[in-house]
Amino acid sequence: MLYKRGPSTLALIFAGMALTLWGIFALLSSYPVGLYLYYTVVPRTSELLGKALTETSQKMVAVASPRPVVAEPPVVPVFTRDITLPEGHYLMIPKIGVDTVIWEGEGDNYEKALKKGVWRVMEFGKPDSVEEGRPIILAAHRFGYIEWTQDYREQNAFYNLPKLEEGDQVAIVWNQHRYMYRVTQVTEATEIADYSSELIMYTCKFMISPIRIIVYADLVE
Description:
By secondary structure, the protein is α+β, with helices and mostly antiparallel strands. The chain contains five helices and eight strands, in the order H-H-H-E-E-H-E-E-H-E-E-E-E. It has an eight-stranded mixed barrel with strand order 1-2-3-4-7-8-6-5. Strand 1 and strand 2 form a beta hairpin.
């Protein structure tokens, strides 16, 4: 008499491993889709993040100290205009694939700039006119908006900003002048702690969180 046999123990083990690996792959590959779904279910998320970014900038304006009086003016490096560079304002961070326009926007019009990508806090410095206590400050979303593609998010915003490390290079092209910066510190905090840096970039760590990823950098050439 023949008896029907079930799957062997070994087959069950392999099947379990296959299902586990498939589950991990599905979870990782569905992450961008999860972001889109989140923004669909909670459509005000981007607005809330934008407010969080601008509130941080308003705190910075309130606490940043003006440039102190010194006996002799500091030595300011001279940057030669390069007509092969484009007019306008651009940010390039090779390590994380950022290659984008720097958008201007007053504090009460921040959302228009953030919808495009990187926003310069206008109450602070520009590459060609930086004062101590008034560095260049750039802000951007990490996750952005439902209409953003993942490629757009990585190239035009600060999605990968946490991947920066001390020593990484950041370039700003400003009206046909190139300014190169070196990252000196990457931190997580609720507000900026060091206004002596010449360039500060920040973004929200999570979709809803008071924690910011803050990158400090200084001019090298």
